[in-house]
Amino acid sequence: MDFSQIVPALPDLWEGMKLTLELLVMAVVGGIALGTVLALLRLSSNPLLSGFAKGYVNIFRSVPLLLVIIWFYLAVPMLLNWITGDFVPVGAFASCLVAFMMFEAAYYCEIVRAGIQSISRGQVNAAYALGMTYGQAMRLVILPQAFRKMMPLLLQQSIILFQDTSLVYAVGLMDFLSSARSRGDILGLPHEFLLFAGAVYFMVSFFASQMVKRLQKRLAV
Amino acid sequence: MNYNWDWNIFFKSTGIGDEIYLDWFISGLGWTIALALAAWAIALVIGGLLGVMRTLPNKWLSGLATAYVELFRNVPLLVQLFIWYFVVPDYLPEQTQVWFKQELNPMVSAYISVTLCLGLFTAARVCEQVRTGIQALPKGQANAAMAVGFTLPQVYRHVLLPQAFRVVIPPLTSEFLNVFKNSSVASLIGLMELLAQAKQTAEFSANIFEAFTLATLIYFTLNMSIMKFMGWVEKRVRIPGLMVEGGK
């Protein structure tokens, strides 16, 4: 084992880590936004809307993330082709981002739904009694409280997503894991670079989970 | 662009022997199930043990189990798989190494790696569920059992575990489903399970949408059937009057 070669390779690995983080941040933001919309649909009294959201969540939660990533990698360019009529280069990054957003939205949806349901019904009624519209009641009363409550769960899910971004290896995107592996192969030190990558993933996820635990304690009433 | 929709593709010849594409899916599904079941067996045994360890009064044992959980939960599954498949075999004794790398069918050596990896990965999650289950039981139960003269192993065997395992059936079900889904990473080291077969079909026949639609449907059906089955198990083993009904 020779770990000395890792130091000169750090700038390259950082490039990979930047892609991982970029993907993560965009997927988390997009996933939570889409997940919140789905949760609102799921809780709507319109059976068509809630049925759609339920079906969406059920389908995405019953298939592997890897399948979704490969599906989108192959299908998104074709779909765009049909819609726009000419060839649109999409690239692995965009297709992975869409895959992560849509997949994670199903998981975020369930968290947000539980969060909204944990706010007592009386608050909604009180908001309506004050003359607020549905949109106002959600935006000003329910969602701010719900998000505070579910913050730890949302963050925990995002830490899982951070680990899952390594699956983009399947479509050849140069994320942190892939760049560590390719560096390792070039230098003939595949084991060292792989173990180093594992250690970095471990440290980031471990410390992030510890922070979430502390946050959870602080938020607990 | 022209895309030739052809839902009959699954009954067409692959051009290899007299196999049709459906045969590939069936063999892929077989690998997926074989992987998931074996990994689940490992996860239940080790996860159950670790879960018990985490609730023991002994600091060393519970600390060891906590370390295991943190380690396996904070490293991505794919990294763990690469370590089991690429790194670990190099540190086996000479003879085992030759056997594993050269004599064994590559499909089987990949299978062993994935099963071990997935089993140990899932064990960390099972451990947490079992621990929660044990801690959810009223403290008085363990004390009462001690008071009537049970030893600690007896308390676990006759009082705590039979109840804890019943309580945690729903969360364990979702871990079981995760094993099926996670087994798809095996395709990345060349094991021809369901996802890999779907990908191969898409590449051979160029009928991408059909191939992946079928794979999605199979995973979906598998998921639903397991959920139904576990719901039935949960009902069957429920002790009347002991646990609160309702709430899935």
UniProtKB/TrEMBL annotation, chain B:
<dbReference type="InterPro" id="IPR000515">
    <property type="entry name" value="MetI-like"/>
</dbReference>
<dbReference type="GO" id="GO:0043190">
    <property type="term" value="C:ATP-binding cassette (ABC) transporter complex"/>
</dbReference>
<protein>
    <submittedName>
        <fullName>Amino acid ABC transporter permease</fullName>
    </submittedName>
</protein>
<feature type="transmembrane region" description="Helical">
    <location>
        <begin position="29"/>
        <end position="50"/>
    </location>
</feature>
<comment type="similarity">
    <text>Belongs to the binding-protein-dependent transport system permease family. HisMQ subfamily.</text>
</comment>
<dbReference type="Pfam" id="PF00528">
    <property type="entry name" value="BPD_transp_1"/>
</dbReference>
<dbReference type="InterPro" id="IPR043429">
    <property type="entry name" value="ArtM/GltK/GlnP/TcyL/YhdX-like"/>
</dbReference>
<feature type="domain" description="ABC transmembrane type-1">
    <location>
        <begin position="29"/>
        <end position="230"/>
    </location>
</feature>
<dbReference type="GO" id="GO:0006865">
    <property type="term" value="P:amino acid transport"/>
</dbReference>
<keyword id="KW-0472">Membrane</keyword>
<feature type="transmembrane region" description="Helical">
    <location>
        <begin position="108"/>
        <end position="127"/>
    </location>
</feature>
<keyword id="KW-1133">Transmembrane helix</keyword>
<feature type="transmembrane region" description="Helical">
    <location>
        <begin position="71"/>
        <end position="88"/>
    </location>
</feature>
<keyword id="KW-0813">Transport</keyword>
<keyword id="KW-0812">Transmembrane</keyword>
<keyword id="KW-1003">Cell membrane</keyword>
<dbReference type="InterPro" id="IPR035906">
    <property type="entry name" value="MetI-like_sf"/>
</dbReference>
<dbReference type="GO" id="GO:0022857">
    <property type="term" value="F:transmembrane transporter activity"/>
</dbReference>
<dbReference type="InterPro" id="IPR010065">
    <property type="entry name" value="AA_ABC_transptr_permease_3TM"/>
</dbReference>
